[in-house]
Amino acid sequence: MQFSTDEEFALQLDREDPLREFRDRFELPRGADGKPLIYFCGNSLGLMPKTARGAVDHELDAWAKFAVEAHHGIDRPWYTYHEPLREPLARLVGARPHEVVCMNTLTVNLHLMLASFYRPTKTRFKIVMETPAFPSDVYAIKSQIAHYGFDPKDALLLVAAREGENTIRQEQFEAAIAEHGDSVAVIAVGALNFITGQFFDIQAISAAAREHGITVGVDLAHAIGNVPLAMHDWNVDFAVWCTYKYLNSGPGAVAGAFVHERHATNTKLPRLAGWFGNDPKTRFRLDSDFIPVPSADAWQVSNPPIFSMAPIRASLAIFDDAGGMKPLREKSVKLTAYLEFLLDEIGSERFTVITPREPSQRGCQLSIMAHENPKELLEKLQAAGVRCDFREPNVIRAAPTPLYNTFHEVWRFAQILSQHR
Asked: What are phi and psi of 388, to 5 degrees?
């Protein structure tokens, strides 16, 4: 598409947008003037679906009216509350329903996955990660390495962008795997890097790792609900994610995990056990050993937190109503390309976009590296009614999301940014 810098062009794109009605399904944060903010921060916390409040109130009413009987005798029984979330989450991550479970938080799920899939030996004990990776992932993985008596300085192999470059080349992962393959137990990579917005070729990384017998784990925190995923077909062993970013499920919302069916159906696989991972037929028997369910459910350790899961139902229903990731991705690619075009037109020496220009190598986020006074620039954007976020030392992340952001907001953002050159 041939873009234009004219405001009317942006407005016309919004009039032609087949997803434009979905913006009205979200609560829009507003400034002191009562006007909606330009909210490009969905990569940190997605906006609240208007139906989320009713979803939570429904469960509060059930608690008030039925108390313990709400676990079984109501229209949305609490005992199986997580089960209807399987299929919509599976569609978003490209999995089969029995490979997916909604539970815990991302870092807890990462620990649970590593308890099963990181089984280091004296000769195969290393973990490969990209850098910078999200700090919580780094903390979790370093602690797992130390838990088994290894030194993270020896066991953690970090793949970084080459000097003078902002993103990691695919061949760098392949080179690290080829060089250290026989000593690597797990490769743990974020599908979409939280700093640069780079979308890695997970299928290629998985294929390279598999040639060396390496387990592949993926953090989907910035990818789920943002880019098309195919965890099953890409032959990933496990994946974890949160739901409060692009899935719009609220702060600290319940997370999820994927376990490929070759593992999910293997009831002999070691794991950290809890009662909700046990076969429901013997879950309450005091004399029973742990009998894992032959699905991703076997990694559950506790019963579902109802009030935290209710907003996820509300959000996933919106994704289904929108037709899934295909139309969302089509709009997202156009939104981000339009933003990139406008930033190119500004042509300021004060900043550089460090996110890959190729649409297949990014999601909706563009990371803007400010070369001078980055926090001052962020403050000016905020004062002008923009909400995006900042990552040390000098990266401003702007993420126009297809469910609720508009092309005119992208145009306005570029106008505001151009005034602060």
From this structure: -130, -175
Closest residue by Cα to residue 239 from 254, 222, 220: 220
Q: Is residue 148 in some structural domain?
A: yes
Whether the CB-CB separation of 392 and 317 falls below 8 Å is answered with no
The pTM score is 0.96
Question: Which pair of tokens denotes residue 379?
Answer: 């403050």
CA distances, 15 to each of 24, 97, 406, 410 (Å): 14, 37, 10, 14
CATH number of the domain at 40, please.
3.90.1150.10
Residue 365, in any domain of the structure: yes
Does residue 187 lie in a domain region? yes
Q: Please, which residues have CB within 8 angstroms of residue 403's CB and are 6 or more apart in sequence?
A: 19, 22, 23, 25, 26, 248, 318, 322, 328
First to last CA, the chain: 28
What domain range is 198 assigned to? 82-303
Residues 299 and 327 reside in one and the same domain: no
Is residue 88 a contact partner of residue 314, using CB atoms and an 8 Å limit?
no
Last residue of a domain, one of 303, 333, 355: 303
What does the pLDDT look like over 128-173, one tens digit per residue?
999 999 999 999 999 999 999 999 999 999 999 999 999 999 999 9
pLDDT tens per residue, range 323-345: 999 999 999 999 999 999 999 99
Q: Is 315 a domain residue? A: no
